Amino acid sequence: MTDADELRRRTRELLAAHPPAETGAPDFLAARFDAGLAWVHYPEGLGGLGAPRSLQAVVDAELEAAGAPDNDPRRIGIGLGMAAPTILGFGTEEQKRRFLRPLWLGEEVWCQLFSEPGAGSDLAALGTRAVREGDNWVVNGQKVWTSSAHVARWAILIARTDPDVPKHQGITYFVCDMTDPGVEVRPLRQITGEAEFNEVFLTDVRIPDSRRLGAVGNGWRVAQTTLMNERVSIGGMRLPREGGMIGPVSRTWREHPDLRTHDLHQRLLGLWVEAEVARLTGERLRQQLVAGQPGYEGSGMKLAFARLNQEISGLEVELLGEEGLLYDDWTLRRPEFVDFTGRDAGYRYLRSKGNSIEGGTNEVLLNIVAERVLGLPAEPRTDKDVAWKDLAR
């Protein structure tokens, strides 16, 4: 299945059999998945046709022109961008068939249980323990900065299963049912006033071994697939020109000539060009994905995303003057996704501060780019061959 014309034909057959104007969104999405037009590069029977990834644009264009519903990707972004490629790469056939269809349809929301209070930047130092008891693993620990945990049915989880080996080796990757006994989700209020993130406490949570992804002790390798896809999904999202954070500040500039100064004009021009360069670089990165899994270049895109968001939002607040100091609502809310453009300038300014932390801190990503992309010498690491239990904490 490599022919664009054949994909157009199949998409038009789907639209003829299930007209979007007459078909409810759940039924249409289910028919799309079963026709292999959800993610065309996935295998047949799992929402795809084994076609080149680049041909997804052919399907999407036909569906968009017909007004077909989408699966609300912002709401289920963790499932689509992180859980799905990891399950596809390391899951059993039974796991793939159980999880991928409801994930793509948006019937089951996913979250990510990776970071911990003592293992954020140094994720491999995580201390959440999983101890095997027969056909189950008993998990105890705490996770933090967990987006969507308050609405999620499933979570991708990494836990330490062997404390007697170096920290990168004794980790195993699981799928955790967020409705199981012992899973407690607490809101984590942020500087914006919202609790978009959560902290999650795991107390004697029993996970069947059948929900393990990859081999025991191989969780760090599995997690790399998740993390590289995460950074691409954060920093390399598809945007139109003046999409994202540069859009609101550009509109403010055009609509309020009284706010303009020469200095602000020069800064806006520079950031506009950088945002456009980042957008086009993201397009190139997505084209590279056609050849396989994302590489470490996604770390560079995520770095650019964080820096630009913070600089652009700072310029917007400065441009607005006194109005930029206003804030619309400090009420504690628990949204299902981040909405950078749907709120005011004050929200964008505050929320963008987290961009240099989430999805990998800037410091960690700079090391990844230096070592894995540029080939620079690695930083000295004294803990690589030390058993996790012997590390200073």
- Encode the helix/strand succession as letters: HHHHHEEEEEEEEHHHHHH
Helix/sheet category: alpha+beta
What is the 3D form?
globular
Which sheet architecture does the biggest sheet show? Answer: 4 strands, mixed
Give the overall pLDDT as a whole number.
91
Query: What value does the Rg take, in angstroms?
Result: 22 Å
Strands ordered across the widest β-sheet: 1-4-5-8
- How many beta strands in the DSSP annotation? 8
Q: Keywords, please?
A:
four-stranded mixed beta sheet, four-stranded antiparallel beta sheet, 393 residues, single chain, globular, alpha+beta, 11 helices
Task: Give a structural overview.
- Helix 1 runs parallel beside helix 3, helix 7 (246-255) packs parallel to helix 9 and helix 9 packs antiparallel against helix 11 (362-373).
- The protein is built from eleven helices and eight strands.
- The mean pLDDT is 91.
- 40% of the residues lie in helices and 13% in strands.
- With 393 residues, it is an alpha+beta fold.
- The strands form two sheets. A four-stranded mixed β-sheet has the order 1-4-5-8. Strands 2-3-7-6 form a four-stranded antiparallel β-sheet, with no helix packed on it.
